[in-house]
Write a structure and sequence with these properties.
The complex is a heterodimer. Chain A has helices at 27-37, 41-63, 66-83, 92-110, 119-123, 133-139, 152-164, 167-178, 183-190, 194-214, 221-233. By secondary structure, chain A is mostly helical. The radius of gyration of chain A is 20 Å and the shape is elongated. Chain B is mostly helical. Chain B has helices at residues 9-19, 25-37, 39-57, 87-152, 156-165, 168-172, 174-180, 189-202, 205-218, 220-250. The chains are: A mainly alpha, B mainly alpha. Chains A and B meet through helix 2, helix 3, helix 6, helix 7 and helix 8 of A and helix 1, helix 2, helix 3 and helix 4 of B.
């Protein structure tokens, strides 16, 4: 019996946004980066075409608002063009996502209405993990990703759950589960150690799980009916 | 592994990392051995796997637009000599061209349009004042004739005659009639009606004779000035149209 990601059959079918192998800058991309360093906007635009979806997705999942995400994406890409000379190799996508995460954090700092609320307040997790929560979530068929078609309501619920996570956990979870970056790249993109990344991802997932379980009643009626019928039959 | 660790952060981090294939071979082997016997950890692993899978199943948001940077082009003549050391310097002049044609056209055409509007208004006002002065001269001439005729006739006839002149009369004659009628400081229509009602009720020929005489004699001066104003307005509007036309051709 093995529990690892790679060996588990149900994780075999990788969705579009799924984990990808560690990405290193290819020759074509390296050429585009070199031209971008000399101020070639056309070359940098080619890089943008390759990575704009990842940058926008990160901003959207971090901030939850399409307009703000678009502004932050544009801001991050401008910043990346300004700073492209400082790119020192490795994954260009991870480097871009790092700039985008910084832009999200900057936006968050700028837009804070309550001055008393500090970054630390959101970076420390509330470990309100209830006993048996994991078992409940693991057993509850409503939350089975294999059978749960991600309808708009469910997507909104997951996004709301993400928005409840402390920023650094949110970022780690998005970079891991949505962007599919390996821990090493997440560590470099978030300026953290591997241990911290591992811990943030685990806490983020656990907190999201708890949130989803608390809001099962928000699931579309169809799911609940199915469940109730299932219970009756069983 | 102790049972107290099961809900601990470290254990959960290991389970979560197992999902991501981020454990060393040794760690993985140890954890898998433990999972064979521990239902709590299996539940924890499964619940974390679900949370992760739900996130991974989220569809990618649709890009609202293309985020490519505007390519540097010598569109703005003031700043082409600058090099392109930073994105901000590139982007700022380049960001404008999409917006510039619209705003520039709007800003430059606006004064021309305003001029055309003003000229049209001036023309209308000029024509109105010319017409009104023309009408009032006509009506005052008619009134002198009418009043002479009706002086010989009875008083009720005059009341009927005064009504049609009332609309044009107040526009022209307020300054002239007001000094005559002391009791009414109110402007415009009042002089016409007040002069008509005492005539209708009292029917004294003295007032009737004095009024037409006054209006025909004293109103010639404002009539001239209103005609002048009308002509001036027409000239202004013509020149306004001419300037607008010249400006349009130049742009």
């Amino acid at each position: 019996m093995s529990f690892g990601k790679g060996s588990q059959g149900d994780r075999g079918a990788t969705p579009p946004g799924g984990r990808q192998p560690p990405e290193h800058t290819g020759d074509a991309e390296a050429l585009l980066i070199a031209r971008s360093r000399r101020g070639d906007t056309t070359a940098f635009n080619q890089l943008i075409l390759l990575h704009q979806q990842a940058v926008y997705t990160l901003a959207y999942r971090m901030l939850g608002d399409p307009d703000t995400a678009a502004d932050i994406t544009q801001e991050a890409l401008f910043a990346a063009f300004r700073a492209v000379a400082s790119f020192r190799g490795g994954s260009f996508r991870a480097w871009l996502l790092r700039i985008a995460s910084n832009a999200c954090f900057d936006y968050w700092r700028r837009s804070r209405r309550r001055p008393g609320e500090s970054l630390e307040a959101l970076t420390e997790p509330d470990s309100s993990h209830e006993e048996g929560q994991a078992q409940q979530f693991a057993d509850d068929e409503r939350w089975n990703p294999e059978t749960l078609a991600l309808r708009v309501e469910v997507q909104e619920l997951i996004q709301a759950g993400l928005a409840r996570l402390p920023l650094e956990q949110r970022l780690a979870v998005i970079l891991s589960d949505i962007q599919g970056l390996p821990y090493e790249e997440i560590a470099s993109a978030t300026n953290a150690t591997l241990g911290t990344v591992k811990s943030r991802i685990a806490r983020g997932r656990a907190q999201l799980r708890d949130y989803l379980l608390q809001h099962a009643e928000l699931l579309p009626r169809a799911y609940r009916l199915k469940e109730e019928k299932g219970r009756e039959n069983g | 592994m102790e049972h107290s660790e099961h809900t601990g952060d470290q254990q959960r981090a290991q389970l979560s990392a197992l999902l991501d294939n981020e454990l060393s071979e040794q760690e993985r082997a140890d954890l898998e051995a433990h999972l064979q016997t521990c239902t709590d950890c299996r539940a924890e692993l499964e619940s974390l796997r679900r949370a992760s899978a739900l996130l991974r199943a989220l569809p990618q948001p649709i890009l609202p637009r293309n985020f490519m940077l505007p390519v540097a082009a010598p569109a703005v003549p003031e700043k082409p000599l600058h090099a392109l050391p930073t994105a901000r310097q590139v982007s700022e002049p380049e960001r404008r061209p999409p917006a510039l044609p619209a705003t520039r056209g709007f800003n430059q055409r606006r004064p021309v349009r305003a001029l055309q509007w003003l000229s049209s208004i001036a023309a209308v006002l000029g024509i109105v004042s010319l017409l009104s002065s023309g009408f009032s001269t006509l009506s005052s001439q008619q009134r002198t004739v009418g009043s002479v005729v009706q002086n010989s006739a009875s008083a009720p006839g005059y009341g009927g005659d005064a009504r049609p002149t009332a609309p044009t009369h107040p526009v022209v004659s307020p300054p002239t009639t007001q000094p005559g009628v002391i009791s009414t400081p109110a402007p415009t229509e009042r002089p016409g009606t007040t002069s008509a009602t005492p005539v209708g009720t009292q029917g004294t020929p003295v007032v009737q004779q004095a009024e037409p005489g006054q209006s025909s004699g004293a109103s010639s001066e404002p009539l001239l000035s209103i005609t002048g104003l009308g002509v001036l307005l027409l000239i202004l509007s013509a020149s306004g149209f001419a300037i607008a036309w010249v400006l349009r051709r130049r742009w």
